């Protein structure tokens, strides 16, 4: 039973982390071209306000995001009590719960004669949980509703990453119309959970007294449930190394109109440190039942659930090294300059994790001298159709402060939204760009 308890603990950890964190594509940040960190999403941006920017640990950039396709916190909790049956009947066949963030350890961007370079070190973490309605109903209400039926567990996945990224980017105009950018990344992985195969179901006999399952399920982990003693190489991710790249191009159709395409996070990490993998493959049967004999989460008979599921699926454990791939992100955007300091834009953004869940954004940017740049936008996302975003960057002397949020309602009432993504930071700028050439 110890093996299955480890799997359940990992699943529970990332579900709870997703609920408590405040969501991967950013719809507002790319519009604020003065912000050096906008280059993380659009490597073709060439700001004309400064030659050099420097960001220091934590204060340079701190981002948190959250996405729940199925429900809000307020849907789940009533009178300070968690009641999953308030949301389970409204779940779709497949549901998604994502969260994560990043922060800069150090970043510097500088301009040579014709090229912008950016050197950065930052930590990135993501958690993803794809789950079926039947899984939530089974875990919470037991298998009584499935007497003589099969619970669909196909496609249940957990994906989580925590890694450090050392990157070097270069952005350069090829000619008067075309600008290209590339960022190479050296990755050091610190923790990972990857679901490889995920095809499972659970059948309950008509009398409810026996259950059987068919499953091909593999859960790979590193730095989560390992037994190795702590050491510096594990902490720094030196045992788990990888490479990635961001690629981008921008083309000017006219003096007022340009289009850009960026494909980010094309890469992998090879995990060798503190690896524990769990594999299920075959058909299984067990006498017993899944029963939750309390409406209270803490007092429910979870031990019976764990015992029965382990008896059915019998997971096996190994410590083989494995490779996980990052989730690529695609940005396609178009900018139109209405007048010198006013730009309107539209964009398509999506990250790819076993499916494509796009976001469509329209917005406008206004600049006031060399002091203030601000934007407001509207986004339509998968399972979430009303998102008003906005952000600003303000400069005073060498200091530049910025704040972006893809759903402004979440700043004031985070418990009422399905999606939230915010980033803020402080950069220091030096040198004036000569735009006379």
Q: Write down the domain tally.
A: 1
CATH class: Mainly Beta
Mean pLDDT: 85
CATH topology label: Porin
User: What is the helix/strand order?
Assistant: HEEHEEEEHEEEEHEEEHEEEEEEEEHE
Outline: elongated
Helicity, as a percent range: 10-25%
CATH superfamily: monomeric porin ompg
User: How many β-strand runs?
Assistant: 22
- State the low-pLDDT regions, or none: 1-23, 293-298
| Shape-level CATH architecture | Beta Barrel
**Can you count the helices?**
6
Give the structural class: mainly beta
Largest sheet features: 20 strands, antiparallel
How far the N terminus sits from the C terminus, by CA atoms, comes to 71 Å
Strand content: over 45%
Write a structural description.
- This protein is mostly beta strands and 437 residues long.
- It has a single domain (2-430), classed as Porin.
- It has helices at 2-20, 73-76, 133-141, 232-236, 302-313, 409-412; strands spanning 52-55, 62-68, 77-78, 81-82, 94-111, 116-132, 150-152, 157-173, 178-204, 210-222, 241-252, 257-271, 275-287, 316-318, 322-325, 329-339, 342-352, 356-368, 372-381, 384-396, 399-405, 419-430.
- Residues 1-23 form the signal peptide.
- Keywords: Signal.
């Amino acid at each position: 039973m110890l093996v299955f308890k480890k799997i359940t603990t990992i699943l529970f950890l990332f579900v709870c982390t997703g609920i408590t964190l405040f969501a991967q594509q950013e719809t507002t940040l790319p519009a604020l071209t003065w912000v050096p960190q906008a280059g993380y999403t659009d490597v073709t941006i060439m700001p004309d306000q400064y030659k050099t920017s420097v960001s220091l640990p934590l204060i340079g950039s701190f981002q948190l995001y959250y996405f729940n396709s199925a429900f809000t916190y307020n849907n789940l909790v009533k009178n300070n009590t968690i009641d999953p049956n308030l949301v389970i009947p409204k779940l779709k066949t497949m549901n998604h719960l994502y969260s994560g963030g990043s922060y800069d350890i150090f970043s510097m961007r500088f301009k040579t004669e014709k090229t912008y370079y950016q050197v950065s070190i930052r930590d990135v973490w993501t958690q993803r949980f794809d789950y079926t309605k039947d899984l939530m109903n089974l875990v919470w209400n037991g298998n009584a509703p499935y007497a003589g039926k099969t619970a669909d567990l196909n496609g249940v996945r957990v994906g989580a990453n925590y890694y450090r990224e050392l990157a070097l980017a270069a952005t350069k105009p090829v000619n008067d119309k075309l600008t290209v950018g590339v960022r190479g990344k050296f990755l050091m992985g610190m923790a990972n959970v990857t679901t490889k195969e995920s095809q499972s179901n659970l059948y309950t006999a008509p009398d409810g007294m026996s259950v059987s399952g068919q499953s091909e399920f593999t859960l790979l982990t590193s730095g989560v449930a390992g037994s190795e003693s702590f050491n510096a190489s594990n902490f720094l991710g030196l045992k788990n190394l990888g490479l990635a790249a961001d690629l981008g191009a921008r083309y000017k159709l006219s003096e007022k109109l340009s289009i850009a395409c960026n494909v980010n996070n094309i890469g992998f990490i090879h995990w060798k440190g503190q690896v524990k993998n769990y594999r299920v493959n075959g058909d299984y049967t067990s006498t017993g039942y899944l029963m939750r004999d309390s409406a209270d989460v803490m007092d429910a008979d979870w031990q019976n659930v764990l015992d029965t599921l382990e008896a059915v699926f019998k997971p096996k454990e190994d410590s083989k090294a494995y490779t996980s791939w990052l989730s690529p992100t695609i940005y396609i955007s178009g900018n139109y300059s209405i007048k010198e300091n006013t730009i309107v834009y539209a964009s398509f953004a999506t990250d790819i994790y076993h499916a494509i869940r796009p976001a469509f954004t329209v917005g406008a940017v206004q600049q006031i001298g060399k002091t203030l740049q601000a934007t407001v936008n509207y986004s339509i996302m998968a399972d979430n159709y009303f998102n008003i975003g906005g952000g600003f960057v303000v400069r005073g002397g060498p200091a530049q402060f910025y704040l972006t949020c893809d759903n402004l309602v979440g700043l004031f009432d985070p418990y009422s939204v399905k999606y939230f993504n915010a980033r803020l930071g402080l950069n220091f700028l030096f040198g004036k760009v000569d735009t006379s050439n």
